[in-house]
Write the structure tokens for this entry.
Amino acid sequence: MTEPGRLPKWVDYGLLPALNLLAALLLAGGIIRLMGESPVAALKLLADGAGGSPESIGYTLYYATNFIFTGLAVAVAYHAGLFNIGAEGQAYIGGLGTGLVCLAVGHWPFWIVLPLAILAGAAGGAAWAFVPAWLQARRGSHIVITTIMFNFIASALMTYLLVNVLIRPGQQSPETREFAAASFMPVLPFFGAPLNLAFVVALGVAALVWIFIWRTRWGYAWRVAGANPSAAVYAGIHPDRVTLGAMLLSGALAGLLGLNELMGAQHRILLDFPGGAGFVGIAVALMGRNHPVGIVASAILFGALVQGGSQLSFDMPRVNRDMVVVIQGLVILFCGALEHMFRAPLVAWYRRRLEQSNPQSAIRNPQS
Amino acid sequence: MNSAPASSPALELRGIDKRFGTVHANRRISLTIARGSIHGLIGENGAGKSTLMNIVYGFYPADAGEILVGGRRVDVGSPQDAIAAGIDMVHQHFMLVENFTVLENIVLGAEGGWQLAAGLARARARLEALARDYGLEVPLDAVVSTLPVGLQQRVEILKALHRGAEILILDEPTAVLTPQEADQLFRLLGRLRDQGKTVILVTHKLREIMAVTDRVTVMRQGSIVAEVATRDTSPRDLAEKMVGRAVLLRVEKGPARPGEVVLAARGLEVRDRRQVARLKNVSFQLRAGEIVGIAGVAGNGQSELLAALAGTLAPSRGEIELAGHELVRERLDARARRALGLAHVPEDRLHDGMIGGFAAEDNAILGYHDRAAYNRGALQDRRAITADCERKMTGYDVRPPRPRLPLASFSGGNQQKLVLAREIEAAPRVLLVGQPTRGVDIGAIEFIHRRLVALRDAGCAVLVVSVELDEILGLADRILVMAGGEVIGEVPRAEATEERLGLMMAGVRGEGAA
Amino acid sequence: MKLLRLLAAALSVATVATAKEFSPAIVYDFGGKFDRSFNQSASEGAERFKRDTGIAFREFEITNAAQREQVMAQLAKRGSDIIVAVGFTQASAVERVARQFPNVKFTIIDAVVDLPNVQSINFREQESSYLCGMAAALASKSGKIGFVGGMDIPLIRKFALGYVEGARHVRPDIEVFENMTGTTPAAWGDPTKGAELARSQFGRGADVVFHAAGATGIGVMQAAMDEGKLSIGCDSNQDYLHPGSVLTSAVKRVDVAVYKAFSDARAGTWKAGQLVLGLAEDGVDYSYDEHNRGILTPAIKARLDAAKADIIAGRIKVPEYRAP
């Protein structure tokens, strides 16, 4: 029983991530120093760019909205024991559904368009997740492989549609015409950024996901199947059905990205609008420990990195966009992959502290 | 190997201390083991004996303390260091490459030079000498996977001797053996001792300690509580020292009053993925108010039988009748069978019956999670679930009684009690129980056995599968013996003896065979 | 918060007030400014402007769709006088930001945005492609030539169509293999795949291959060099990459367009509206320099120059690909 020692929540969810973030920023600062720029100034630009004004906060949250949707998608699949790498493609096809609703009936009253767009987005994403799920449940094809493949297929399909079918006649750029203004997602006032109602929808969806996963018998069954498939069979839960159900929901969540990106900001369907959010979602779910609260928090962190990073490269041209990707990569590395690096020393430190204050408390429940 | 004077002890531990997080697994253990002796190390699960042996073998570093081999201090940072110091260990789960031959397995990691053929030839000569000296006959060119378990264990022992082991640690060596194979092992250990080797036998079986050891050390909660010469003690005495209080070793129960047939299996056959029949034409009946025991060496079809009955494995042939339903034809899954009153405590609790990372209360509803009592509309009734778990914990003395604690942080016995509570409290018609007391401490064994008997007396049909003969003999009213995937015979409890069952378990059909 | 906004507003006013000096800006597309092709050509124009005038410019490389609008708005707010947006994907962003900042000049390259403060510069790529198709057909011994496009979009089909038409003009029976690299923007930056496609076309008998694939084309040209075949470069003059193997390049003077937009804006002669640059305006051309003099024989060059004159004079009509 080498189970790691337990830490109080504030250490686990507060101090530990903060230390990881700090380590990532220190290393990034070192690299910026090597490039001949001031790390302090760079950090200040990054922080200012991400949260220094209502507008930058608005952009941060706007980017975070995409990451919340894809992060939740990855997390839901994860709880059922599935690694969904296909959120990118599912978001792409889901967005197609949302976009088509807006193109077709966008002039209808917004409160009718919105539910339709949500349904169409969810349906598109779910449909795109269904095939890999079915292939895994019935034929045993590994979902990691098939969902990656489906990202490419989604991309090829969308390029075909945008170039040949949906393109606005007589123009170069492969994008559709603009949606009717009635179907634009209301932009949240005060920020002066494309931050829109989809952010609120994302928060609501996060709450619903939490309820579903932790407070319903179906979420329970999924978690059982994910944690221990043979215990699931023992309990009369069918892992195949869980795979199908969880992937449908996962794809549906990813499919909502179009609400923010298309209805909220671009107001048309255009090439590659998910822009990698499906992959960032994996890191977001990982960092957020697959918990909706953690996902919202880490989505905002990643939103801040994107927004702050773009400001950084704007004002410090030597730190170009590739350097910003390096900084983001370091954060993922330290907060995701090396998450437990500071854990062991912290556990030791915490135990020592505990023993000093109360020598008896450490001696209980001996295990071999 | 050791140039130290013969008078110094083979192994001496001084003040070994080890913690895992907040768990104090070993507390300043000091222990001396004489050269040329068989030393028993006994204790309940979680007493710290495996931790101690893993420290000696170099798997974990000790937080404090020192290890002396032949009177000389050694630093055991890894198993390689231990082997170099003449210490070797035979694990409960063998560390063999299944598709290598015996010879290749023994040479593995000690090939000596880059020419494999030369190394093999040298090893062969040495092994033949070793086999002669110790009476350890093993077919060197057989592929390991084709050998019976008892022989595989001999391969492990031979491997250790080949590497020059002077001190041999065996961790629960008889768990996978028939009584006859176990006796052969004990005779071998005796020969090793007579040749001057030192054997440490880690076990929780009192019978083995009494049969082969010279001295015995008892551990409880990370400390040594007693160290005695085996001839000066008794099983009852050792059991009390292990548990810390007086225990009943026998199950107390009245005669069974079997009622109507509640479950009938007819011609069950199960095939594995390679289409090999693991269960062959098994038929039997279970009556209300009786405990039927299934005896057999592990891996002779008992697991498949339980799985087929519980609905986690589809039989390729045969039928199971329960409460007027034909379970196989109607394709009823585990959940549907539970609804018909078939409860199941699985053999491999960790693997099948629970989720270690989940809270105890979430484990206490596994399989019953969609019952109305735990749900309110679409949402789970968390308050009811917690209250239900609290009730079960109190009723089955699960400690600590904290429903929100992850199940993995409970001891094996308490986990098993919770699983048992879940299945028994569902008020089943039939209860299938696999290895009811595997990895469970003595105190809990007593409790679990009493519960099973009480359930029988309440009119439930109980099917117990166990590799512990003592347990089958203690609990069952009727005993089926399985070997090679078949039910090889049925013996009424009154006529059952360990010898007779042992022969049948080895595949010899008894006179009373059905 | 209100105070903060006021402060921010005051600050931005202050920067505008002090920024008397002319301040141009350029926003590159996904390919990045070092794609050795389209964006790089734009960057060269901006750099030349800086060398000639000593006026610094701001620049930005896009990483996601939403950034386009954000960055342009920010440039406008920070007092940029003219913003050049490189690439058709920026059209919708330019459209929106230009509406928001009617006093800032915008130049978009490769797309049309119809607003009073936007200048749209487009090229007749089909004309240079036509000449390159002729060159390929004239230089080919096998009667088979290839085309490797980046992403399958209208702009690239425009290149392909002109190329095929030019080749047919000199050899009606010529066989042309067409391949697109991919369906995502990654298709602009995948030299490995470009090399593979080129090799497969060589395998089928082609001996000249034209790329319109951004950085992917680097691989196409490398493969041609390795196999002893000929390649045709695109956008920038790429003859220097493999002298003796690059037959010519379909040059698109994005650099000239950027330079002109900057200097016109500075001089006050910048005008909104559409500008289409073809052979006649020196906006596109085929390249001829010391690197390809050995392979682009005088005979070929004579045919190309004649055709060029015919196109300018309207005697040859080069068809233009129309998006559906």
